[in-house]
Design a protein that fits this description.
19% strand; alpha/beta; single chain; globular; 8 strands
């Protein structure tokens, strides 16, 4: 990363796009190679806010599409799949003349990133999967805590216990994620994933340079061995593991995650 900031994090522009009867809200900031930041299941792009200053300082142009049902973006419609979610992001990239872009998907956001890379290779430069489930099966007990995190009827202290158990490293402050959950959006996104029958998009690293950014204390998706990762998603995959972080990762180690992404983007061919 450079030491001279090119754009301040408060120079973020709110934009809106209409397509096929739906409205999409997104944010844009910075100048340089385009990087699209796609948030996790039932969460909005504010999760990436701690990363914006260091990524902007690295000289990157950041695009943050707000998921359907969040921040003014129209809700997902019945029967829509991950392909429609990816098409939303594709429309934003095209509107901003930002392709080919680096696609960064946090946790379940990696589904959208990989589907978009498959469906619109012309808009894709490379893909980063951040704390993504790609090689493991989530244990039932962990699934219970994930579901409880979305249950806003539970007392904060009980939800906090679930957040600590599955999302955060032992030394992290899990209370920063008490807010920001969208249960209806999560349910719609899960249904969209269930309705996505094809799996041609899974092996994203057969075609694109792909970085897996893992969290050392992630109990939802422990960082895979590189050989296992490449066997699952393709030979162009690489991996970096961030210490002192769990599945949430972004609020825990924003500087380290930003450094890993910026260094990788800076080393991409072309």
């Amino acid at each position: 990363m450079t030491s001279t900031p090119r754009t301040k994090a408060d120079d973020v522009h709110q934009r809106q796009l209409s397509r096929d009867g739906i409205t999409l809200h997104y944010r844009v900031c910075g100048a340089g190679p385009s990087v699209v930041l796609i948030p996790s299941l039932g969460r909005g792009t504010e999760d990436f806010d701690p990363l914006l200053p260091p990524l902007l300082q690295a000289g990157l142009r950041l695009i943050l599409p707000e998921p359907r049902g969040i921040g003014g973006s129209s809700p997902l419609r019945d029967g829509e799949t991950l392909h429609q979610m990816a098409a939303d992001v594709a429309a934003i990239i095209a509107a901003e003349a930002a392709g080919p872009a680096v696609l960064v998907g946090h946790a379940a956001g990696n589904w959208v990133a990989r589907v978009l890379a498959h469906d619109r290779p012309d808009l894709t430069r490379a893909v980063a999967l951040v704390a993504a489930i790609v090689t493991n099966v989530v244990p039932e007990g962990v699934k219970t805590s994930i579901s409880a995190s979305f249950d806003m009827a539970l007392p904060d202290e009980e939800r906090l216990g679930h957040l600590r158990a599955v999302y955060f490293a032992a030394a992290s402050d899990a209370s920063v994620w008490l807010d920001g959950w969208w249960p209806e959006v999560s349910a719609a996104q899960r249904e969209a994933a269930r309705l996505t029958r094809d799996q041609d998009w899974i092996r994203v690293a057969d075609r694109f340079e792909t970085l897996y950014v893992g969290a050392a204390e992630d109990v939802i998706s422990p960082p895979p061995d590189l050989d296992v990762l490449r066997d699952k998603i393709g030979p162009k995959a690489d991996c970096v593991v961030i210490p002192g972080a769990g599945h949430a990762l972004l609020p825990e180690q924003p500087e380290a995650v930003a450094q890993a992404l910026a260094d990788w983007v800076g080393g991409l061919p072309g």
